[in-house]
């Protein structure tokens, strides 16, 4: 039982540290672009409507980009930067799947539209944050207000990406510590993990799970056994074979943002080890209760997800606020 007091102490220490670090940052506001680009939210929404209508997977691509951006240097658009002679980007970091992140062309398309309407005004960091909100709404998820006023970073940090972003096979305590470091609570972590109700996972990221304890957590009932067989047909046991094959993280409603993800965890069928840990870990007393809550009360999940997404989007990069820029092209620092 000694783990839990130490975990609470760790949570308090990290949250206080994050508050003290970001206390001097300029506040984000809802009306930041009121006079300079009043149609920014409409422009992003209309572009996202077309893109998600053409392929619902685009919603998950954009949402994942936003998560991976905010966990490294704060929400500053660093994930969008390409490698150059002078800069090493984050796209090839191992936690970003060595270039497996998708959605960059979506951001390019929206940025081009914004530059034609309001040149040099809207940051890529704000664009991505707004687009992530719209992505969720367009596949059935909740609405939340998006405060804006972020600046784009002039740097990227692949080492920090490898250090800060949770991995697919990580244990519960490791995942919790990474969320706490960002100033996000255990409740935020469980709610934000619900984003895995949409999107796909690569075989490389769920192989250990399906050839490991999947049978133990699911109880090997006939339906779970059939699902496991399907997963193994997609993902061979041998490493290097089919590593890039993909399957939906929510096999029931893969293109709908709902609480089906939590029902999968209750059945022991979480695709990623890091997801199933929320319910099955011996350290998961608090997380297990939250999984139960969101599985039985979708309104509670939607409400908490909205609140947690605002907190995620408000993770700041002090350096970018004061020394950042508004990139003309999201892939490159301005010359």
From TrEMBL:
Main location class: secreted
Signal peptide: 1-24
Keyword vocabulary terms for this entry: Calcium, Disulfide bond, Heme, Hydrogen peroxide, Iron, Metal-binding, Oxidoreductase, Peroxidase, Secreted, Signal
Cofactor(s) this protein cannot do without: Ca(2+); heme b
Cofactor binding note of this UniProt entry: Binds 2 calcium ions per subunit. Binds 1 heme b (iron(II)-protoporphyrin IX) group per subunit.
CDD domains per the UniProt record, alphabetical: secretory_peroxidase
InterPro entries in the record: Haem_peroxidase (IPR002016), Haem_peroxidase_sf (IPR010255), Peroxidase_pln (IPR000823), Peroxidases_AS (IPR019794), Peroxidases_heam-ligand_BS (IPR019793), Secretory_peroxidase (IPR033905)
Stated family: Belongs to the peroxidase family. Ascorbate peroxidase subfamily. Belongs to the peroxidase family. Classical plant (class III) peroxidase subfamily.
Name used for this protein in its record: Peroxidase
